[in-house]
Amino acid sequence: LDLPNGTETATFGAGCFWGPDARFGALEGVARTRVGYAGGADPDPTYFALGDHTEVVRVAYDPEIVSYEELLETFRASHDWHTDAPKRQYRSVVLAHDDDQYERARRERDAIAERTGRSPATDVELLEAFHAAEPFHQKYELRSRPIVGDELETLYGEAFVDSTVVARLNGFAAGHVDRSRYDALLAALDLPTPILAELRRWR
Ligand code: MHO
Protein backbone atom coordinates (compact mmCIF):
# COMPACT_ATOMS: atom_id res chain seq x y z
CA LEU A 1 0.00 0.00 0.00
CA ASP A 2 1.51 3.30 -1.04
CA LEU A 3 1.35 6.20 1.35
CA PRO A 4 1.03 9.81 0.20
CA ASN A 5 4.10 12.04 -0.01
CA GLY A 6 4.71 13.78 3.27
CA THR A 7 3.84 10.74 5.39
CA GLU A 8 6.22 10.46 8.34
CA THR A 9 7.08 7.61 10.67
CA ALA A 10 7.59 7.44 14.42
CA THR A 11 8.45 4.59 16.78
CA PHE A 12 7.59 4.14 20.46
CA GLY A 13 8.16 1.49 23.12
CA ALA A 14 5.39 1.61 25.75
CA GLY A 15 5.17 -1.80 27.38
CA CYS A 16 3.50 -4.77 25.73
CA PHE A 17 2.98 -3.57 22.14
CA TRP A 18 -0.61 -4.86 21.72
CA GLY A 19 -2.08 -1.89 23.62
CA PRO A 20 -0.17 0.95 21.91
CA ASP A 21 -0.85 -0.68 18.51
CA ALA A 22 -4.58 -0.15 19.17
CA ARG A 23 -4.22 3.34 20.68
CA PHE A 24 -2.19 4.70 17.80
CA GLY A 25 -4.37 2.89 15.29
CA ALA A 26 -7.39 4.78 16.63
CA LEU A 27 -5.86 8.22 15.94
CA GLU A 28 -7.01 10.32 13.00
CA GLY A 29 -3.97 11.02 10.85
CA VAL A 30 -2.37 7.65 11.54
CA ALA A 31 -2.29 5.72 8.27
CA ARG A 32 -0.60 2.56 9.41
CA THR A 33 0.75 0.80 12.48
CA ARG A 34 3.07 -2.14 12.82
CA VAL A 35 4.47 -3.75 15.94
CA GLY A 36 8.04 -4.95 16.17
CA TYR A 37 11.30 -5.09 18.05
CA ALA A 38 13.86 -2.29 18.16
CA GLY A 39 16.30 -0.44 20.34
CA GLY A 40 18.83 -3.26 20.57
CA ALA A 41 21.69 -4.60 18.48
CA ASP A 42 20.62 -8.23 18.00
CA PRO A 43 20.34 -8.70 14.20
CA ASP A 44 17.39 -11.10 14.16
CA PRO A 45 15.06 -10.81 17.15
CA THR A 46 11.89 -12.88 17.53
CA TYR A 47 9.28 -12.80 20.29
CA PHE A 48 10.82 -15.78 22.05
CA ALA A 49 14.42 -14.63 21.46
CA LEU A 50 14.24 -10.88 21.85
CA GLY A 51 17.89 -10.37 22.72
CA ASP A 52 18.40 -6.75 23.82
CA HIS A 53 15.38 -5.37 21.95
CA THR A 54 12.19 -3.75 23.19
CA GLU A 55 8.60 -4.20 22.00
CA VAL A 56 7.68 -1.14 19.94
CA VAL A 57 5.02 0.16 17.61
CA ARG A 58 5.94 1.99 14.42
CA VAL A 59 3.41 4.48 13.18
CA ALA A 60 3.05 6.08 9.72
CA TYR A 61 1.22 9.41 10.03
CA ASP A 62 0.26 12.56 8.21
CA PRO A 63 1.86 15.46 10.14
CA GLU A 64 -0.74 17.85 8.70
CA ILE A 65 -3.43 15.95 10.63
CA VAL A 66 -1.61 14.74 13.72
CA SER A 67 1.59 16.27 15.06
CA TYR A 68 4.55 14.44 16.54
CA GLU A 69 3.71 16.10 19.86
CA GLU A 70 0.20 14.63 19.71
CA LEU A 71 1.71 11.21 19.08
CA LEU A 72 3.86 11.76 22.16
CA GLU A 73 0.70 12.47 24.16
CA THR A 74 -0.76 9.16 23.01
CA PHE A 75 2.54 7.49 23.88
CA ARG A 76 2.30 8.90 27.44
CA ALA A 77 -1.33 7.81 27.76
CA SER A 78 -0.43 4.28 26.64
CA HIS A 79 1.76 3.29 29.57
CA ASP A 80 3.15 3.90 33.01
CA TRP A 81 6.13 6.07 32.03
CA HIS A 82 7.27 6.98 35.52
CA THR A 83 8.11 3.48 36.73
CA ASP A 84 11.09 1.50 35.49
CA ALA A 85 9.88 -1.46 33.45
CA PRO A 86 10.64 -4.90 34.91
CA LYS A 87 12.45 -5.90 31.73
CA ARG A 88 14.12 -4.20 28.79
CA GLN A 89 11.42 -5.86 26.66
CA TYR A 90 8.92 -3.38 28.10
CA ARG A 91 11.00 -0.24 28.65
CA SER A 92 9.60 3.19 27.93
CA VAL A 93 11.44 4.52 24.89
CA VAL A 94 11.04 7.01 22.09
CA LEU A 95 13.05 5.89 19.08
CA ALA A 96 13.51 9.01 16.98
CA HIS A 97 13.70 8.63 13.21
CA ASP A 98 15.79 11.81 12.78
CA ASP A 99 17.44 14.64 14.72
CA ASP A 100 14.29 16.73 14.63
CA GLN A 101 12.20 14.01 16.33
CA TYR A 102 15.04 13.43 18.75
CA GLU A 103 15.06 17.08 19.86
CA ARG A 104 11.28 17.23 20.08
CA ALA A 105 11.10 14.02 22.14
CA ARG A 106 13.78 15.35 24.51
CA ARG A 107 11.87 18.60 24.91
CA GLU A 108 8.63 16.75 25.59
CA ARG A 109 10.34 14.59 28.22
CA ASP A 110 11.72 17.71 29.97
CA ALA A 111 8.33 19.40 29.75
CA ILE A 112 6.42 16.48 31.25
CA ALA A 113 8.95 16.18 34.09
CA GLU A 114 8.55 19.88 34.79
CA ARG A 115 4.77 19.80 34.60
CA THR A 116 4.19 16.68 36.71
CA GLY A 117 7.18 16.77 39.03
CA ARG A 118 7.83 13.12 38.20
CA SER A 119 10.92 11.94 36.40
CA PRO A 120 10.11 9.92 33.30
CA ALA A 121 11.70 6.48 32.98
CA THR A 122 11.59 7.16 29.22
CA ASP A 123 14.72 6.76 27.11
CA VAL A 124 15.05 8.91 24.01
CA GLU A 125 17.33 7.41 21.36
CA LEU A 126 17.82 7.42 17.62
CA LEU A 127 16.22 4.43 15.89
CA GLU A 128 18.69 2.10 14.25
CA ALA A 129 16.70 -0.83 12.91
CA PHE A 130 13.09 -1.90 13.21
CA HIS A 131 12.31 -5.64 13.07
CA ALA A 132 8.67 -6.44 12.37
CA ALA A 133 7.05 -8.80 14.87
CA GLU A 134 5.34 -12.05 13.91
CA PRO A 135 1.93 -11.78 12.18
CA PHE A 136 0.00 -13.03 15.23
CA HIS A 137 1.12 -9.94 17.17
CA GLN A 138 -0.10 -7.47 14.52
CA LYS A 139 -3.51 -5.87 15.27
CA TYR A 140 -3.76 -8.23 18.21
CA GLU A 141 -6.87 -6.71 19.79
CA LEU A 142 -8.82 -7.09 16.56
CA ARG A 143 -7.45 -10.54 15.84
CA SER A 144 -8.61 -11.75 19.24
CA ARG A 145 -12.23 -10.81 18.49
CA PRO A 146 -14.07 -13.97 17.55
CA ILE A 147 -15.45 -14.11 14.00
CA VAL A 148 -14.55 -10.57 12.99
CA GLY A 149 -10.79 -10.90 13.36
CA ASP A 150 -10.60 -14.04 11.26
CA GLU A 151 -13.05 -12.85 8.64
CA LEU A 152 -11.32 -9.52 8.19
CA GLU A 153 -7.95 -11.18 7.93
CA THR A 154 -9.23 -13.48 5.22
CA LEU A 155 -10.91 -10.61 3.43
CA TYR A 156 -7.93 -8.25 3.52
CA GLY A 157 -5.29 -10.93 3.02
CA GLU A 158 -1.83 -9.41 2.68
CA ALA A 159 -3.20 -5.91 3.18
CA PHE A 160 -4.53 -6.68 6.68
CA VAL A 161 -1.54 -5.41 8.65
CA ASP A 162 -1.01 -2.22 6.65
CA SER A 163 -4.63 -1.20 6.18
CA THR A 164 -5.75 2.09 7.74
CA VAL A 165 -9.27 0.75 8.25
CA VAL A 166 -7.94 -2.32 10.03
CA ALA A 167 -5.81 -0.06 12.24
CA ARG A 168 -8.95 1.91 13.21
CA LEU A 169 -10.98 -1.25 13.82
CA ASN A 170 -8.15 -2.55 15.98
CA GLY A 171 -8.38 0.70 17.96
CA PHE A 172 -12.11 0.27 18.27
CA ALA A 173 -11.75 -3.34 19.40
CA ALA A 174 -9.76 -1.95 22.34
CA GLY A 175 -12.34 0.79 22.99
CA HIS A 176 -10.41 3.79 21.65
CA VAL A 177 -12.57 5.22 18.85
CA ASP A 178 -15.53 7.40 19.72
CA ARG A 179 -18.96 6.34 18.62
CA SER A 180 -19.70 9.08 16.09
CA ARG A 181 -16.49 8.39 14.24
CA TYR A 182 -17.15 4.68 14.43
CA ASP A 183 -20.55 5.01 12.76
CA ALA A 184 -19.00 7.07 9.97
CA LEU A 185 -16.21 4.56 9.57
CA LEU A 186 -18.58 1.61 9.30
CA ALA A 187 -20.85 3.48 6.89
CA ALA A 188 -17.88 4.02 4.58
CA LEU A 189 -16.85 0.36 4.59
CA ASP A 190 -17.76 -2.04 1.87
CA LEU A 191 -17.82 -5.12 4.09
CA PRO A 192 -20.09 -8.17 3.96
CA THR A 193 -23.27 -7.62 5.96
CA PRO A 194 -22.63 -10.28 8.65
CA ILE A 195 -19.26 -8.69 9.49
CA LEU A 196 -20.76 -5.20 9.59
CA ALA A 197 -23.52 -6.49 11.86
CA GLU A 198 -20.96 -7.99 14.21
CA LEU A 199 -18.86 -4.79 14.18
CA ARG A 200 -21.97 -2.74 15.07
CA ARG A 201 -22.54 -4.93 18.12
CA TRP A 202 -19.30 -3.64 19.66
CA ARG A 203 -20.56 -0.12 20.24
N1 MHO B 1 1.45 -10.45 29.44
C1 MHO B 1 1.28 -10.54 28.03
C2 MHO B 1 2.41 -9.93 27.30
C3 MHO B 1 2.33 -10.06 25.85
S1 MHO B 1 3.10 -8.78 25.11
C4 MHO B 1 3.14 -9.11 23.48
C5 MHO B 1 1.04 -11.99 27.65
O1 MHO B 1 1.97 -12.75 27.44
O2 MHO B 1 -0.12 -12.34 27.57
O3 MHO B 1 4.49 -8.79 25.57
Account of the protein in words:
- The protein is of the alpha+beta class.
- It folds into two domains: 8-135, Peptide methionine sulphoxide reductase MsrA (Peptide Methionine Sulfoxide Reductase, Chain A, 2-Layer Sandwich), CATH 3.30.1060; 142-200, no CATH class.
- The protein is built from eight helices and six strands; from the N terminus they run βαββαβαββααααα.
- The chain has a six-stranded mixed β-sheet, with helices on one face.
- α3 links the parallel β4 and β5.
- The longest helix is centred in the middle third of the chain and has 18 residues, at 99-116.
- It is globular and about 50 Å long.
- The model has no long low-confidence stretch (mean pLDDT 94).
- S-oxymethionine is lined by residues 16-18, 55, 137.
Q: What keyword list fits this structure?
A:
8 helices, Peptide Methionine Sulfoxide Reductase, Chain A, 18% strand, 6-stranded mixed β-sheet
The helix fraction, in percent, is 25-40%
pLDDT under 50 segments (min length 5)? Answer: none
- Our Rg estimate from Cα atoms comes to 17 Å
Count of DSSP-assigned helices: 8
What is the terminal-to-terminal distance?
Answer: 29 Å
Q: Could you tell me the mean pLDDT?
A: 94
Give every kind of bound small molecule, once each. S-oxymethionine
The number of strands is 6
What's the name of the CATH homologous superfamily of the largest domain? Peptide methionine sulphoxide reductase MsrA
Query: How many domains, in number, for the residues?
Result: 2
Label the overall shape.
globular
Largest pleated sheet? 6 strands, mixed
Find the CATH topology of the largest domain.
Answer: Peptide Methionine Sulfoxide Reductase, Chain A
